[in-house]
Amino acid sequence: MTISIILPAFNEARLLPTSLAAVHAARRAFDRVQWTSEVIVCDNNSTDATAHIAQKHGARVVFEPVNMIARARNAGASVATGDWLLFIDADSQPSIELFNALIEAIQSGRVLAGGATVRMDSDDLRGRIGTAFWNTVSRLRGLMAGSFIFVEAAAFRQIGGFSGQFYAAEEIDFTHRLRPLARASNRRIVILSQTPLLTSARKLKLYTPLEIGRLILSATLRPKATLTNKQACHLWYDGRR
């Protein structure tokens, strides 16, 4: 069994070293079951040292010139050799315990794909409330957070990967398109909840409550029009780090 770990990265020079160190440490979980793994970073048209840092920390680097998270994930997957693909955000830090839970899910034979609950690296009240809300919705509805998605490679390719329409929430669309295939194969999409993924709370520091609230309201009232508009999804693309 081979696992391809893919990190989309746009101007992530500051956080990428810590994230890759966590990924490499967590990969030791695969030694226990004699699985192999590879780490791929997709440089999504960065203007900083993202690509150099990724190479320095032992990752294979691919380049995607169009600044879009979905395209970056797909570009990484296009060169992946794994039986399973694991997408992790470049500002997140998986643990070996989370990888052990992933192994258990794959070995069960009953899982086609999955995600994980999250926790932020900050005690900010807004972050705690936001993650608690998302984790509840994620578990109840089986929705995968983009910061941690694992999926059988054959299934990923069968549905065409992530949609190139969405600048944000592409993981929600991905989940919905994967569900018929899961049902047809009598397998599930699971959310690992015992060992949450540690992820960055930087958006809470970089953007005002008004900016974040305006995006949430727009995405609620006009989801497709908002999420397919790069300018509307500027929290991911304006380069603030």
Secondary structure tally, helices: 12
* Average of per-residue pLDDT values: 95
Which CATH architecture? Alpha-Beta Complex
Taking all Cα atoms into account, the compactness measure Rg is: 17 Å
CATH class: Alpha Beta
Give a summary of the structure in a few sentences.
The chain has helices at residues 16-26, 28-32, 50-56, 69-78, 96-108, 125-141, 153-158, 170-184, 202-206, 209-221, 223-227, 234-237, and strands at residues 2-9, 36-43, 60-63, 84-88, 92-93, 111-120, 148-152, 188-199. The protein has 241 residues and is an alpha/beta fold. It has one domain (2-202): Spore Coat Polysaccharide Biosynthesis Protein SpsA, Chain A, CATH 3.90.550.10.
Structural summary, described in words:
An 8-stranded mixed beta sheet has the order 3-2-1-4-7-6-8-5, sandwiched between helices. It is built from 12 helices and 8 strands. The relative contact order is 0.16. The mean pLDDT is 95. The protein has helices at 16-26, 28-32, 50-56, 69-78, 96-108, 125-141, 153-158, 170-184, 202-206, 209-221, 223-227, 234-237, and strands spanning 2-9, 36-43, 60-63, 84-88, 92-93, 111-120, 148-152, 188-199. It is globular and about 50 Å long. The chain is an alpha/beta fold and 241 residues long.
Which properties best describe this structure?
single chain; 241 residues; alpha/beta; Spore Coat Polysaccharide Biosynthesis Protein SpsA, Chain A; eight-stranded mixed beta sheet; 12 helices
Sequence-ordered SSE layout with sheet pairings:
Blueprint: E1 2-9, H1 16-26, H2 28-32, E2 36-43, H3 50-56, E3 60-63, H4 69-78, E4 84-88, E5 92-93, H5 96-108, E6 111-120, H6 125-141, E7 148-152, H7 153-158, H8 170-184, E8 188-199, H9 202-206, H10 209-221, H11 223-227, H12 234-237
Parallel strand pairs: 1-2, 1-4, 2-3, 6-8
Antiparallel strand pairs: 4-7, 5-8, 6-7
